[in-house]
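Worked Example 4.2. Consider the chain below.
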Amino acid sequence: MEGDKIIFTKDPQPKPADKTTNKYQKPITKIVFIGILVLILLIPMQMIKSLINERMQTADDATKEVYQSWSGPQTISGPVLSLTLKGQTTDAEGKPKYEQDTYNILPNKLNINGNIATQELKRGIYEIVVYNAPIDITGNFVYTDELKSIMSSYNNVEVTNASIYMGISDLRGISEEVMIKFGDQQLYMNSGLPIYSLSYSGLSSTVNIEQFLEGSPIDFSTTLTLKGSKSIDFLPLGKTTSVEIGSNCTTPSFSGNFLPSNRNVTNNGFTCDWKVVQVNRNYPQVISGNAYSREINNSSFGVNVLIPLQHYQKSMRAVKYAILIILLTFVVNFFVEMIQKKDIHPVQYLLIGLALCLFYSLLVSLSEHTSFTIAYIIAALMTDGLITCYLAGVLKIKKTALAIGGLLLLLYAFIFVLMQLESYALLAGSIGLFVLLAVLMHFSQKIEWYKQS
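Applying the procedure from the previous section yields the following structure tokens:
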């Protein structure tokens, strides 16, 4: 079979691979994967935000339970004289008619002195601040020309009811019977307020005002043994209102329409005082019915003695920087891969990302049992130590792993400093990010981006 020859031919030469595709393939694939992984890690970060909100709600519920059993925030107003006048007037046509109106007479001088003794009650792991506050109230009432003019507008005027009352927002906080001295009268105050009063909750007593209507100033004095929580506020009802407060609370927050004229806050507590005069508020000394109720309630001032649960707010602020820490950590590891020719598997990137997310769970749980600063340091050291040891095993180069761990520790320190700043947080953050970007740009020059993988 000489004519039947088998001819072997060489396969055609394979087409040369596209060098451009190969040399970009590994870096681009890894960059895309890192971007997708960062987006995936936003899911556990969102879960941590929900956890913080849930813990804040639990703390708020515990606080409300204690307030319900003890007593809530207190607002003190008065004393105030309530007079119901009945007499004959004339209408627009000049015909006689009988009217009965109630007027609230505010004190001429109102002096308040108190000492707020705070204490902490525990509800589970939460500490809620409450207080006992003996309050001394003195001052006087004056039969003013304004009241004389009102009474002279009636014919055969008659005072059908005269009461003295004090507004107290939460009557559960009164620990003992309340007695008020009005001139030479000693009066026991009872629960309930007269009609058309300026408060919605308080104590009152009927009073003899014959001496007052004769034009003599009438002094008054009383002492309240008061319990409360969160805050204590006062209404500047006096023509001149002076308030002096002392407390063992070391974290007061002054609130309301008037700040203290003087304050002194030390490690042992605080002292402060206010002075408010009539022209500082938008209502007169004699008020018809319950007019100006809104203006009166909006003129309050006082002090907040609640120890705020700032660790939850700080933890929430820290979570906002999570994307920055995760992204920068992944970028640094990517640069190490490119420069030192080390491969980090996608699963290993995922484990590193989860460790970074776990930092915030550690932060929240630890801060509930210790100060936020200590909790932050412990959580940062635990997370940084875990990642450093893991990278030492993955990269097989301890110096590089230690360098990455040191950089991560510096990043945590930078974020902590940012959270302590308020007015300069944006400036410091912008400068810090600029420096970080400059460092990354410098090391990116060492990567041979066009070298074939």
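The two ends are 53 Å apart (CA to CA). Residues 23-58+311-444 form one domain. Compare this with Example 4.1 before moving on.
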